[in-house]
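Weekly modeling sync, notes
Attendees: S.R. (lead), two postdocs, one rotation student

Agenda item 3: backlog of single-chain predictions. S.R. asked that every request posted to the team notebook include the full sequence so nobody has to chase files. The rotation student volunteered to paste the first one in as an example of the format we agreed on. Action items at the bottom.

Example entry:
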Amino acid sequence: MQARTFSKWPEPLGLAAIGDEKLVEQFADNSRQELMAVGIRQGLHPQVDLATEPRWSRISGTFGEDAALTARLATAYIKGYQGTKLGPNSVATMTKHFPGGGPQKRGLDPHFAFQEGQVYIRCRDLELYCPIDGIVGSKSFKAYHSSRLHIGFLENQSSR
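Predicted structure, as returned to the notebook:
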């Protein structure tokens, strides 16, 4: 499927590389206007999983590995689509898949039962929850979708 008549923007990872909250909000507002013009009123985004597993195929849909940056940019993203209050001029967003979608065992994706296996490195456990904490506090946050959550821990492998 190609959206030939819609504006073209970088993936969220590209927006994260720029790191500008106002630009992310502007992008989301422009996209909101285009989606509303064709009758689309909900999006299954943003994706706020942290990119902590380099083999994972969905890294380009994230805002990267920095939890604080992800929280700031996702908040701006949601505000651009929904405004400060969900209403008739909003495109509703569904923040996903946090927690449970990013750092999968062997870089697989958690959408399918055969690919379950959440793996965190102990030194980053709590950091992985930071984005959702930062986003939930925003007035625009309304809903999120979580993947299957099966957590396993790896000791820090750097000493081996």
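Discussion: group reviewed the output briefly. Residues 148-160 have pLDDT under 50 and may be disordered.
Action items: rotation student to repeat for the remaining queue; S.R. to check formatting next week.
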